[in-house]
Design a protein that fits this description.
Layout: H1 2-20, H2 25-28, H3 31-48, H4 51-61, H5 72-92, H6 98-102, H7 108-111, H8 114-118, H9 120-135, H10 140-188, H11 195-249, H12 254-263, H13 273-282
Helix pairs in contact: 3-10, 4-10, 5-11, 5-12, 5-13, 9-11, 10-11, 11-12
Length: 283
C-alpha cells in the first residue's frame, strides 16, 4: 500500500509542480526518449545479469507491493513451534523428532504452524540444524558458526535483486543524457528552422535527462531500497531461529531459549512476554 502511495506522491508532486509553473504536459510526452532510456536500461540489465539473476529479480519485484516483513502473528507461530520442539526434545530426547524433521510437510508437529510451513527456506533451516543436532555432538559456538554461514549465504542471494536494480538505477541518469544528446543531434539538423521550432526540439531533448534522473531517484532507486529492506527484515526471522537453537543447545530451558529468540525481534513485530506465553499455551 505505501509503495503505491509513494508512486502517486512522486507523480503528483513532479507533474503538479510542473503545471503550477505554467508547463504543458504535452512537452513531456516524448515516446522516443522513453524507448531510448528504458530500452537501453533493460538491455544493460540483461547484459550484466546471468539468466538465474534475471529470473530472481523479476520474481522478487512484485514483493514491493506486499507486506514484506514477518508479522507479530508469524513470529508467535515460529516461537511457539520452537517451544514445542524444545519441550519434546527435553522430554523424549533428540531422536523423538527425527521422523518429524525428515518430512515436516506431513508432520503432525509442524502441521499447526502454517506460516512456518509456507516459508520453505526457514523450514529447511530449522530442520537441517535439528538434523545436525541429532547426528553430531556439536558445541553451541560451532553450531552458531554453522548457522551464520547458512544465514550469510541465504542473505547474499536475497540481496541480489536489490543490488541488480540499484545498478540499473545508477545507469538511468547517464542513459537520460544519451537520449538528450541524440535529441540535440536531431535538433542540429534543423538549425535553419525558426527559434520557436528549435526551442521545441531542444526542450524535447532535455526531457531525456529529466526522465533519466526522475526514474533513478523517484522510482527505480526506491524500489531497490525497498527490496534491500525486505531482505534485511527476512534475515531477522533466521536470527530468531539461530538464537533460540544456540541457547537450547547451550543448556537453556525451552522457555528461556524461546525468550532469547523473542528478544532478537525488534520493533512492533516483537510479541510481548505475555503474548508469547498465551500463544504457546494455545498451541
Amino acid at each position: 500500500m505505501f509503495t503505491i502511495i509513494g508512486f502517486v506522491v512522486v507523480v503528483v508532486a513532479v507533474v503538479g509542480g510542473f503545471l503550477m509553473g505554467g508547463g504543458n504536459l504535452h512537452v513531456l510526452w516524448q515516446p522516443a526518449e522513453f524507448i531510448i532510456i528504458f530500452g537501453a536500461a533493460l538491455g544493460a540489465f540483461f547484459i550484466s545479469s546471468p539468466g538465474g539473476i534475471v529470473g530472481l529479480v523479476f520474481k522478487n519485484i512484485s514483493t514491493i507491493f506486499s507486506a514484506g516483513a514477518a508479522t507479530k502473528k508469524e513470529y508467535l507461530e515460529l516461537l511457539s513451534l520452537m517451544s514445542t520442539i524444545f519441550s519434546k526434545i527435553r522430554k523424549d530426547g533428540l531422536i523423538s523428532i527425527e521422523a518429524e524433521i525428515e518430512n515436516p510437510k506431513k508432520s503432525q508437529l509442524f502441521s499447526k504452524y502454517k506460516s512456518v510451513l509456507s516459508n520453505h527456506h526457514a523450514l529447511d533451516f530449522i530442520c537441517d540444524n535439528l538434523k545436525v543436532m541429532i547426528t553430531t555432538n556439536m558445541p553451541p559456538h560451532e553450531l552458531e558458526s554453522l548457522m551464520d554461514v547458512d544465514i550469510s549465504a541465504h542473505h547474499q542471494v536475497e540481496m541480489v535483486p536489490s543490488e541488480s536494480i540499484t545498478k540499473v538505477a545508477d545507469a538511468l541518469p547517464g542513459l537520460g543524457i544519451v537520449a538528450a544528446v541524440l535529441g540535440v543531434v536531431l535538433t542540429m539538423g534543423k538549425i535553419d528552422e525558426p527559434p520557436s521550432v528549435l526551442g521545441h526540439h531542444i526542450g524535447a531533448a532535455l526531457v531525456g535527462t529529466f526522465l533519466g534522473v526522475l526514474m533513478c531517484y523517484g522510482f527505480v532507486g526506491p524500489i531497490a531500497t525497498n527490496l534491500e529492506n525486505q531482505a534485511k527484515e527476512r534475515g531477522i526471522y533466521f536470527e530468531v531461529i539461530k538464537v533460540a537453537l544456540v541457547a537450547f543447545v547451550g543448556g537453556a530451558a525451552p522457555q528461556m531459549a524461546v525468550e532469547l529468540g523473542r528478544r532478537a525481534i525488534g520493533g512492533k513485530e516483537r510479541p510481548t512476554f505475555m503474548e508469547l506465553e498465551k500463544g504457546i499455551r494455545n498451541k
